[in-house]
Write a structure and sequence with these properties.
Blueprint: H1 5-16, E1 22-38, E2 41-59, E3 62-68, H2 73-91, E4 108-110, H3 116-120, H4 124-139, E5 145-163, E6 168-186, E7 189-198, H5 203-206, H6 212-227, E8 235-241, H7 243-255, H8 260-264, E9 284-287, E10 311-316, E11 319-320, H9 327-333, E12 341-342, E13 351-352, E14 356-359, H10 366-371, E15 375-387, E16 392-404, E17 407-412, E18 415-420, H11 421-426, E19 430-431, E20 436-437, E21 443-444, E22 450-451, E23 453-456, E24 459-467
Parallel strand pairs: 4-6, 8-15, 14-23
Antiparallel strand pairs: 1-2, 1-5, 2-3, 5-6, 6-7, 8-24, 9-10, 9-14, 10-11, 12-13, 15-16, 16-17, 16-18, 18-24, 19-24, 20-23, 21-22
């Protein structure tokens, strides 16, 4: 029997009426499907399904957690009993008790299923064909393309979250993704280019910014162009970060440092609320909604504690205004939760996680920013990278476009960009009006995998460039 999220919410609400104390029940069903085509053949086709119920209780000022891979009353009651036993056992070793959790901003109701039918009713054959055609287009774009691959995948999630202090919410969503890569080889030189797209929403939302064939052609052309591109001269440079690099910066080097659990552990953002950490043209936010453009890959209406997932302004005109909180950290700070508690599967406990993280657009056009740059680089396409709790970062960049006297004059390759995140934000002097989400096809790996997105406008700043 197929159970929908709304019906499960009603069922869980009924179970809570006979339970004493604070109890949280979260039903989570996740289905994923994917296909991959490599060098003209279907390399794999996968399908996975899991569902169950997560249980958290508070006993003696301590959380207890359990879960069950079934959704019947007996299994859930048994999981509640196990969670209570775990809380009591842990409480004897806990010196600091949980504060009363804030009951503000708890969600009540059903929160929609945008794009679900649009994706789920399309056949597996259609999804294989879109990957096959893109792979063929990339491989056939140039005689220098020696290998190509393309893939389509989707995650369908349904949730119902209820708590004894007032949350009662349900929703469904789907996250489709597409990726294509091309490998060019000549005279021992090998270059790879990849284009990806990932959204929360339907099939049309996935390809609104360009068809699968257009992405394949872009990947192939870039791989070929990179073969003859020179490497840059390193050093501190004026750079224009495209929305994908902006997204990587704000997620990896800023977003993690303002998650309240990382703040408590001593991240670079600790103790800086109310202080200037960026130039006054920078406003940086995290939102459960898809701000400024549709389809952001980390969109959720409600977090996994039943809190409405609205917009949180982290940096406002350069001033650090807020951290990202779950209900516990918000209680300790004496503020409302921000809706950032998220769990990857029903068996996981919620952790403080980002959703869609971005810099707000400005009022200058991208063309004007380039035209007013005398000597610098436009950086596009993140390849890899790392950042730590100090805010120090280093990212690989696929495409570095040289700018001389306000004009883009050529492509360079093998570029890394590095710096200290807050110092980099302090150097920002121009923010474009154009805006794009660009990291929706990836996962954040903090403890559990999690779908997120990040992006923003084009941003001009100062950073160190290296040649990899």
């Amino acid at each position: 029997m197929v159970v929908d999220a709304s019906s499960m919410r009603t069922f869980l609400d009924g179970l809570l009426r006979t339970e004493a104390g604070w109890v949280e029940l979260r039903w989570h069903r996740k289905s994923s499907r994917g296909v991959a085509v490599e060098d003209g053949r279907v390399a794999n086709a996968t399908s996975r399904h899991e569902d169950g119920v997560s249980v958290r209780v508070i006993e003696n000022g301590t959380f207890g957690h359990s879960s069950c891979g079934a959704s019947d009353e007996a299994s859930i009651r048994h999981a509640i009993a196990k969670a209570r036993a775990a809380a009591r056992a842990a409480s004897s070793r806990r010196r600091i008790r949980l504060p009363d959790l804030p009951a503000s901003r708890l969600a009540i109701g059903d929160f929609g299923r945008e794009g679900v039918n649009e994706c789920m009713t399309r056949s597996l054959g259609e999804k294989i064909e879109i990957a096959r055609a893109a792979e063929q287009a990339a491989r056939g774009a140039s005689g220098l393309i020696q290998s190509a691959g393309a893939g389509y995948s989707e995650i369908h999630e349904a949730k119902a979250i209820v708590t004894s202090d007032g949350a009662s919410a349900s929703f469904e969503l789907v996250r489709p993704e597409f990726r294509v890569s091309a490998i060019a080889i000549k005279d021992g030189v090998r270059e790879v280019s990849t284009r990806t797209r990932g959204v929360t929403g339907g099939w049309e939302c996935l390809f609104r910014g360009g068809t699968s064939l257009a992405l394949a052609e872009q990947a192939a052309k870039t791989a070929v162009d990179l073969m003859t591109a020179p490497r840059p001269e390193g050093g501190r440079k004026t750079v224009i970060l495209d929305p994908s690099i902006v997204g990587l910066l704000v997620h990896e080097a800023i977003g993690h440092t303002v998650e309240a659990d990382f703040v408590a552990a001593g991240s670079v953002a600790a103790g800086k609320l109310g202080t200037r950490v960026a130039s006054d043209v920078v406003t940086l936010c995290d939102s459960g909604h898809s701000e400024y453009a549709n389809g952001a890959g980390g969109t959720i209406p409600v977090d996994d504690e039943g809190v409405l997932a609205s917009r949180t302004c982290i940096i406002e005109k350069g001033i650090l205004k807020s951290y990202l909180h779950d209900r516990e950290s918000a209680a300790r700070a004496g503020i409302d939760p921000t809706g950032n508690a998220r769990a990857f599967t029903y068996a996981d406990e919620p952790l403080i996680r980002m959703r869609n993280t971005y810099i707000e657009p400005g009022d200058t056009s991208f063309d004007d920013i380039v035209a007013s740059t005398d000597d610098g680089y436009l950086l596009e396409g993140p390849r890899n990278g790392q950042a730590d709790a100090t805010g120090e970062f280093m990212f690989g960049v696929e495409r570095a476009w040289r700018i001389v006297k306000g004009k883009i004059v050529g492509l360079e390759k093998g570029v890394t960009v590095s710096g200290i995140a807050f110092d980099t934000l302090m150097s920002v002097d121009a923010v474009s009006r154009e805006f794009r989400w660009d990291l929706g096809s990836g996962y954040c790996g903090k403890g559990q995998l999690m779908k997120v997105d990040a992006g923003g406008p084009f941003v001009r700043c100062s950073a160190l460039l290296g040649s990899g």
